[in-house]
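Appendix B. Chain record.
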Amino acid sequence: LDDFICGILGPRGRKFTPFLGTLFIYILCMNFLGLIPGMKSPSSSLNTTVALAICVFLYVQFTGIKNLGIVGYLDHLAGNPRDFITWVLVPINLPIHIIGELAKPMSLSLRLFGNITGEDILIAVFVSLGVMALSFLNLPVGLPLQVPFIFLALLTSFIQALVFALLSTVYILLAFPPKEEH
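C-alpha cells predicted for this chain:
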C-alpha cells in the first residue's frame, strides 16, 4: 500500500499511507462481510459510503488548507489567477471548482454503494434461482448457482476498495499546487 500511494503522491505520500491504507482495508473487510451467508455488506448502505466519502472530503480540504494556507487555498479554488484574463474568469472558475470539490465525495459514495449493492443483489438472485430450481422436491436447500458469483464478488470487492483508495489518493494529489517545470 505504501508503494502504491507513494507511486502516486511521491515521497510526500508516506504521511498519507496510514489514512488511505486504513480506508482500503476497512472497505475491503466491509465488502467481504457481505459474502458471509446471512450478512449484508455495510458498503451496500448509502449511510456508510457517504460517511466514508465525507471523511475523505474533510481530510482533503484540511490537507489543502494546511499545505497552502487559507489565502493560498482560496487562490487555488479561484484557479490561481495571475494575469488580467484569469482574474476576469475568477467568478466562473470559483463556483465550478467548488461544485467539483462537492461532487467528488458524492461520486465516491455512489460508486461504492452502487457496485456493492449490485453485487449483493446478483448473489441473492442466484441463491433464489438455486432454491427455485429444486422447489418441486420441497427441499430446504437448492442448487449452489451463486458460487461462481461469490468468486467474482471477491474480485470486485477488492477492486472497489482499491478504486476508493485510489480516487482518494488522487483527490489528495489535486489538493497540492501543480509542480512548476523548470
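Further analysis of this model is presented in Appendix C.
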